[in-house]
Amino acid sequence: xxxxxxxxxxxxxxxxxxxxxxxxxxxxxxxxxxxxxxxxxxxxxxxxxxxxxxxxxxxxxxxxxxxxxxxxxxxxxxxxxxxxxxxxxxxxxxxxxxxxxxxxxxxxxxxxxxxxxxxxxxxxxxxxxxxxxxxxxxxxxxxxxxxxxxxxxxxxxxxxxxxxxxxxxxxxxxxxxxxxxxxxxxxxxxxxxxxxxxxxxxxxxxxxxxxxxxxxxxxxxxxxxxxxxxxxxxxxxxxxxxxxxxxxxxxxxxxxxxxxxxxxxxx
Length: 267
Known about the structure:
Elements: H1 2-16, H2 27-41, H3 51-83, H4 88-114, H5 122-141, H6 143-146, H7 154-173, H8 179-201, H9 205-235, H10 257-266
């Protein structure tokens, strides 16, 4: 019995002895463990465009938007003066609506390009310009109801619709740098044209052709806008790291001690 108690006491002492602790981790190893834990627990972040890429696209929009406004203006003058000459009152009211909206949109663009106060807030300018562009598109599309009425001759109606479709394609193509801007230039006038074509002849070859052409135009604009955005992302990639200029060994010229002493004496 004494021998058994002595063996049991010896075994308990062996189990209660402190085990040797592992070697402590240094600072770099602790940082690596913390980074792995943060990466494993963090939710996957949605890929967003960098600020530099957005600013580049805003600059493209401000430079390319001018020809788009010129297309709207030229088409409005041609329709009001040439095609809708037998309708002077309605053509004059519609032209006044379009040129009033064009003036506002051109003023926004000119202030931004000139470097006025709004140039310090490019994202706000883009929102204002997009809203003004939607007003231009709506005013331009209203001509399909005012000038291509069912009571007018077939030649006036077809010429007005054809000119407006071509102007919509050309003007919206100059705003592909921003997807919402190109949609603001294309969708309102496209809706007016499709409804006006249905109002004139119902579900006919004319209305189907107008709808198909405008649908293809919107699809092409979305594809072109994605290409322009991808090019901006490749040129200005998003990064969360601080960029530092690192000179290779051998390109750094050694500073002479005499120059250091002279600089210290001047200071």
